[in-house]
Amino acid sequence: RRILEPAVLIPIFLSPIVTAFGYVVAIGPVGFISLWVKTLVGSVPWNVYGLPSLIVIAALTHVPHTYLYVSTALRSVNPELEEAARTLGAPPWRVALDISLPLVRPALLFSASLTGVPSYQMMAVVALSIVVVTLPLVMIQRHLLGQASRFATIRGRGLALRPLKLGRWRWVALAIVVAWLLLTVAVPLGGILLRSVVKGWGEGVSLSRVLTLDHFRGLADYPNLIRGIVNTIALGVIGGAISVGCYLIVGLTQHRWSSRGVAVLDFMVLIPRAIPGLVGGLAFLWLILFIPALRPLRDSMIAVWMAYSTVWLAYGLRLISTALLQVGPELEEAAQTAGASPMRVRWEITIPLVRLGLIGSWLLIFMMFVREYSTGVYLFGAGTEVIGSLIVSLWGAGGLDLIAALSVVSVAIVSVALATALRLGVRLHD
Predict the structure, then answer these.
(1) What pLDDT sits at residue 179?
(2) What is the distance of C-alpha 135 from the center of its chain?
(3) Considering only CA atoms, which of 184, 185, 208 is closest in space to residue 197?
(4) Residue 390: Cβ within 10 Å count
(5) What is the per-residue pLDDT across 79-117, written as a single tens digit (0 to 9) for each?
């Protein structure tokens, strides 16, 4: 379980365009797996460019988002309710359907509203249409959260959380998770890695004769590609740290604030996630072009950072708020009783207590910034290259060799960050 849980979250930290490219080179018309299957059965039984394939791939890659919300809710379910059902002879699947899932219905509906938002990447009119569709979903979410007490199962006394014994069903569960990991992680990543070390690929091509590392050496021949890699790392390291600082300010504003303004602020924070990153980047481009004071930012990484920070505001603030919720009010109240000002309480009590959470948030935001590609497309220019926007540009130019090499670099950066986060004990879920 300790191994599978972080593995399930890997697709969240992979750039969607990198994953898409991986599927194309793995199961596309002349993909590695497609040609292998063709030699066995005489034809390729799927079309990766068809609507059914798009639906299946989208569904598979959104599993971790639902898992994050539902698993968090399941950890809050009183285990005595599940154990009582097992004592009465209910099998694990019956406990899940009749006890566990009904209790986490708000989390299921919330995750459905997030993964169900249309991602039409058009211009302003369509962007407004997306907001119109999404705002009712946000209102439904707030209504459900307002009724959260109906689903509360943990009260005053502490409870020992014990895993539910699956018995022989554990092998079925393991097979499902492993099959999903193969389709969602192994297939696209394997395709990317193999494509990055071959000169060409097609029917009748022998793999041993086309192996090469020239694609990685070729990156050095294009200064904008190297600059894009450096910019991406700097955006994640420096920009991510500054973003976490901004998110912390917003989180501290909400912390211990019981006014109705908290609901308004929480609602506003979710709005950037109601539109695709491509539209968010376009909106920042319009602001820069229409406001003279902002025009000097047009060809700077500051504009890219502002767009990234806004698009990922809801995610970053959620990470900060989770850390702040772990701080008991008694410590802050004691400092205030001793005469400390609110600012001093925040600086000397609250922030030091959540420093590990801030480090974890920074690492996770770093990975989000590295994986992002759509937000920077309209802000792409000389000096503002990032890996994601470079891949989009190269895709249009047909530079598959360089795309494969850049994709491997992107995955390597995210892998190092993810390994570091896990090594430091960062929790990837609430």
Answers:
(1) 94
(2) 21
(3) 208
(4) 26
(5) 777 888 888 888 888 888 888 888 777 767 767 766 665
Q: What average pLDDT does the segment 62-66 reach? A: 83
Choose among 60, 30, 34: nearest CA to 184: 60
Quick one: average pLDDT of 30-57? 89
**Closest by Cα among 186, 346, 335, 167 to 255:** 346
Q: What is the model's pLDDT at position 160? A: 55
DSSP, residue by residue, 67-122: HHHHHHHHHTS-HHHHHHHHHTT--HHHHIIIIIHHHTHHHHHHHHHHHTS-----
What is the spatial distance between Cα 238 and Cα 310, in angstroms, rounded to a whole number? 16
Condensed to tens digits (0 to 9), the pLDDT of residues 15-24 reads: 888 898 999 9
**Which residue, among 205, 209, 222, has the nearest Cα to 30 in the 3D structure?**
205
- Residue 404 vs residue 164, higher pLDDT: 404
Q: In the numeric block, which tokens belong to residue 377?
A: 């497309």
Any long-range contacts for 225-229 (C-beta under 8 Å, 24+ apart)?
Answer: 225/385, 225/390, 225/402, 225/406, 227/383, 227/385, 228/385, 228/386, 228/387, 228/389, 228/390, 228/406, 229/387, 229/406, 229/409
Q: Which two tokens stand for residue 222?
A: 């294009």
* Of residues 30, 28, 16, 102, the one with CA closest to residue 60: 16
Q: At how many degrees (to 10) do helices 400-423 and 187-195 cross?
A: 130
β-bridge mates for residue 198, sequence order: 211
